[in-house]
From TrEMBL:
The chain crosses the membrane at residues 20-40, 46-65, 99-121, 127-145, 157-178, 198-219, 240-259, 288-313, 339-360, 366-392, 412-430, 450-467. InterPro entries: AA-permease/SLC12A_dom, Amino_acid_permease_CS, APC_YAT. GO terms for molecular function: amino acid transmembrane transporter activity. It is a multi-pass membrane protein. It is found in: Membrane. Residues 17-474 form the Amino acid permease/ SLC12A domain. Keywords: Amino-acid transport, Membrane, Transmembrane, Transmembrane helix, Transport. Pfam families: AA_permease (PF00324). This is Lysine-specific permease. GO terms for cellular component: membrane.
Amino acid sequence: MSNNENGDVKRSLKTRHLSMIAIGGSIGTGLFLASGNAIATAGPGGALVAYVAIGLMVFFLMTSLGEMATYMPVSGSFSTYATRFVDPAFGFALGWNYWFNWAITLAVDISTAAIIVQFWFPQTPAWLWSTIFLVLIFGLNALSVRAYGESEYWFSIIKVATVIVFLVIGVLTIFGILGGQFIGFKNFTFGEAPFKGGFFAILGTFLIAGFSFQGTELVGIAAGESATPEKSVPKAIKQVFWRILLFYIFAIFVIGLIIPYTSPNLLGGEATDVAISPFTLVFEKAGLAFAASVMNAVILTSVLSAGNSGLYASTRMLWSMAKDRKAPKFLAKVNKRGIPMAALVVTTIVGALTFVTTLSENGTIIYTWLLSASGLTGFIAWVGIAISHYRFRKAFLKQGHDLSELKYRAKFFPFGPILALILCILVIIGQDYQSFLNPDFTNPAWWQKIGISYIGLPIFLIFWLSYKLARKTKMVPLDEAKFDHRES
């Protein structure tokens, strides 16, 4: 394998690529499918409260990540920042955990994409479509970082256009201009609405909202290959707040106005439930008969976009850790096009092997545990971002730097990262709060359910403590933290 001159990735991503990667990271099946479940669980008001709170948390996390990524744009992102400003063992655990999460998620995405295509071609085998999509995603990532950025740009354009059309049609439907009579606010005052089920229902919706926003941190990893990170990253981060407001909060408000929270259709949350996606229901209410097919195509692009980004993020994380001597050395090789091919091939193989487990009977059980293990990883990564930024800023000032040196400065420090950290921990603890409301310590099934829900935490702790004990690492003193821009 021939290496490029510096053994580094190429800074080929433009501002428009980075902005759309940030947007694409937060718009996906969480909005198109799971938002209905959130309204059914907590009512339209409860869903709005949960999405506003999690949206605020994500905004603060992105400003924290933006401050660090603009000053130190590296592909290792929060793993590198945790190594530099918290503890090398913490960075090691974050990096491997994040890689593992996206490698598993790649298998989920290609499985889901195959199920979606069977909506049109029910007679074709799912494994065939999964193989085609895996080859496609691998090809886009192997070609060049520009090919990845361009494909993500167009995937995101489709998603953004769908949400905008949905909002316009939704508002027209509410006022009775499309689909008959004036609806107004009657579904917000119907039954237990706007708040159903109280605090715990909203807490449960926190989880749905949290999963919906996972992927926004991709912009931090992509910053390592941005041509102009000092311009591109702040622009992408600034858009986070407005797109969360428009795409999520407004969309859920519109769905809550049009569809009563008691509708059984809102409980669909799987990719197979495209016919009862809240978006499909609203389009059909407006008289658009082809809505299911259109939304199926949009959800397919969302899933492929998630797989594309997941393979990119995990490959770059693995490459960066290899450069930082936290992964095997051969994974640090980069070819002439600036692609870490060894890391890409290894990640693809792990994703493919995970997918193969879904094809066997016993494999489904293994797959469920793997999927559960990856479930908390996004939230753990967000905890890492909040802690790293808090210590980044403290170290920056302690070493005599001035805040004017920062090209992008996170607002509301230290309130922002502290609030984000508290909300993240709340979401992690509340992962399976229902089991703790009705504990059954003598029932093995109860313990298995708890195990599946929280398996991600012990895995993270094993990574952290094993590295800490093996290397005898300590918390990095603030006055010794390194601010140079190299990966390792």
